[in-house]
Write a structure and sequence with these properties.
The chain is of the alpha+beta class. This is Protein kinase domain-containing protein.
Length: 656
């Protein structure tokens, strides 16, 4: 009876099958060790306790082996393990009550047990080794999922079949003709990653979003590096074919990354979509859809956001609420369109009609987007560090300015202020062909913006490669309006000191009356007077085309370039770099990607960048992209010279 009870208790501790009976003549030591080895166990002949003769017993489940020693024969093990090089033991204490207590211990065959301290050190070693092994396995699986995503479902299926947990044996079907035993070591980590994913997504959304970003970015990066080196030594026709295939693949991958993650990556994609002068055509073709057509959120979620924010507007005290404390939409709007007019990186826009019949649009911020944006900004910092040394310029100042300005976009009250300010400045300056929407101030809140509706066609639809002939016939109107917009930016940059920093095609409308509609004032900036004066000096120098003055103005703006060979950068090269950064005219060197080995930045890298000018340069990059797409060769410096002269007169008292 006692033998059966002992065997039953050992089975419960180790989840394995043991012999039904333990030989009654066996005198066990209080020191019993167990080793994980191959699936065989040797036990002594029941007629001779010390002979060492043994018979082989096969055990199901995890391979467990007992190595027991008799006090009278310390060097002669009664239970002898099959040599396998393994050194992981478990200790069993077999006392008078026939109870067993497993405890991990790292031990060699000829090593003598020396007390509790050795057990603790052995446990620590086992934990460290097993922990390191688990980390390496999980790291390998994450890399496999990153670069070989298609095989992940098969790996999950085979790993489940390889699970050696007894309760699952009757549930998991046997895979005929396939040996899944090699996957037994990965079955646990695969199961852990599969089960942990929903918990990480809910409990650690920041970590989950970061992992998704890098899992999608790394294959794109490695794919381009692979093509870069494999294309060397090939003929030009073969290189063109290889890069064309890679750009098609990369454009699709980047587009899927942006659609999947949204947030800040949509805004980055919008910039890339306007840079047809050096961004590959497959990229701009796919990313152009994101200029005003980012993935929208479902209307019930949007409706809840609108009702919550209406409870924070100026009229909140006079608006009726429901039992949950949310403002009733019918109390403010007679109609709210469920289909969005446009979806952007942090918000989306719906058409509506106020109770007095006025047509408006509602711009409401996505729920939870502020948390996601913080994660995205951290990822951009890591991308900058990852690309450090691979780009001919330092991304640090640009990233720092992005970190400073992007969070400001979440304050729609700030956007309302800039919208009103720029609209008033343009009206007072006589730019009556540019229309900025008027906000409904009493209904606006920090995450809600209600403004008048501008009826028109976005430039993205007119400039789309597959636009209808009717829309293509209006391209000359767009060309005239873009030229007019360049004039307006001279007024904003140099005279007013307050400018719209996001003039991509999705934020420009061809209105029904032929005027230009300017929308989305989330990215705006106020230029300090000293910076504005230095910029005016640069514009005048570029207009005069005096290389020495241009080089001096460039240094005054805090832009410094170096020579890759350690020499001195010539004034002509500095003048060329200044024209690329602060003009919109066609420059051949500006059409070469900074990643290309033929880029001028490879021989003349940018060593210092004034982050206060990032949004100025960004707006000029977008304007240059518009001009390039419309085949316009217009020099902003020529247009802006009168505004620069006026700025220098107004700022004569400012020392720089």
């Amino acid at each position: 009876m006692e033998d059966k009870e002992v065997a039953s208790r050992i089975r419960r501790h180790h989840r394995r099958l043991l012999p039904e009976k333990i030989p009654p003549r066996l005198s066990l030591s209080r020191k019993v060790f167990e080793i994980s080895c191959p699936a065989r166990l040797l036990r002594p002949n029941s007629t001779d306790d010390t002979s060492g003769k043994a018979e082989v017993l096969r055990v199901d489940g995890p391979s467990k082996y007992v190595n027991a020693k008799c006090p009278g024969y310390i060097k002669q093990p009664l239970f002898q393990t099959i040599p396998s090089g393994a050194s992981r033991y478990c200790m069993l204490r077999w006392n008078k009550k026939q109870e067993s207590l497993p405890l991990q211990l790292l031990r060699s065959e000829d090593r003598k047990y020396n007390g509790l301290s050795q057990v603790i050190l052995g446990n620590l070693g086992v934990v460290l080794i097993e922990g390191l092994t688990a980390v390496l396995k999980i790291g390998a699986l994450l890399l496999a999922r990153t670069f070989c995503d298609d095989i992940w479902p098969y790996l999950q299926a085979f790993s489940v079949c390889a699970l050696i947990i007894d309760p699952l044996k009757s549930l998991v079907p046997k895979v005929r003709g396939i040996d899944v035993r090699p996957l037994q070591g990965l079955a646990g980590p695969v199961a852990a990653l599969t089960v942990a994913r929903p918990f990480v997504r809910l409990g650690l959304p920041d970590l989950y979003r970061t992992a998704r970003f890098w899992r999608r970015l790394l294959p794109i990066y490695c794919g381009y590096i692979k093509t870069k080196y494999t294309a060397k030594g090939k003929s030009q026709e073969k290189q063109f074919e290889m890069w064309s295939t890679r750009h098609e693949w990369g454009g699709e991958k980047v587009h899927r990354l942006v659609l999947d993650l949204s947030g800040f990556y949509v805004k980055s994609a919008q910039i890339l979509a306007t840079k047809a002068d050096f961004v590959p055509e497959p990229w701009t073709r796919r990313l152009a859809n994101l200029l005003d057509n980012a993935p929208p959120r479902p209307f019930p979620e949007v409706e809840r956001s609108i009702r919550q924010e209406l409870g924070r507007c100026r009229l909140r005290s006079s608006l009726p609420v429901d039992s949950k404390g949310l403002v009733l939409l019918d109390a403010v709007f007679s109609v709210v369109e469920t289909t969005c007019l446009a979806a952007a990186s942090i918000a989306q826009v719906h058409g509506a009609r106020l109770r007095d019949g006025k047509r408006v649009v509602i711009k409401v911020q996505h729920l939870g987007m502020e948390v996601a944006m913080k994660s995205d900004l951290r990822n951009i910092v890591w991308v900058a560090k990852f690309l450090e040394g691979q780009l001919p310029f330092d991304l640090g100042p640009v990233v720092r300015e992005i970190q400073k300005t992007i969070p400001l976009e979440f304050d729609f009250e700030r956007e309302m202020m800039f919208m009103s300010k720029i609209r008033l400045n343009l009206e007072q300056s006589g730019f009556d062909r540019i229309v900025c929407p008027k906000p409904v101030v009493d209904l606006c809140a920090k995450r809600l913006l209600v403004m008048e509706r501008l009826e028109g066609i976005p430039f993205t639809r007119i400039l789309h490669p597959h636009a209808s002939e009717e829309l293509k016939c209006r391209i000359p109107e767009v060309v005239n309006l873009v030229a007019y917009l360049v004039h307006a930016f001279g007024q904003m940059f140099l005279v007013d000191g307050v400018f719209h920093a996001d003039p991509h095609a999705g934020n420009l409308l061809l209105l029904d009356d032929g005027r230009l509609g300017l929308i989305d004032f989330g990215q705006c900036k106020v230029l300090e007077d000293p910076v504005r004066k230095k910029l005016a000096i640069m514009i005048v120098a570029l207009y005069d085309n005096e290389e020495l003055e241009i080089a001096s103005a460039l240094e005054g703006l805090g832009m410094k370039f170096g020579d890759a060979n350690g020499g001195i950068v010539s004034d002509s090269t500095l003048a060329l770099m200044a024209r690329i950064m602060f003009d919109t005219c066609y420059v051949q060197e500006a059409t070469v990607s900074p990643m290309s080995t033929e880029s001028i930045l490879r021989s003349t890298p940018l060593t210092s960048f004034n982050q206060a000018l990032w949004l100025v340069v960004r707006a000029l990059v977008l304007l240059r992209g518009l001009c390039y797409g419309l085949k316009m060769d217009i020099s902003a410096c020529t247009v802006w010279r009168p505004y620069a002269i006026r700025a220098l007169e107004d700022l004569e008292h400012i020392s720089v």
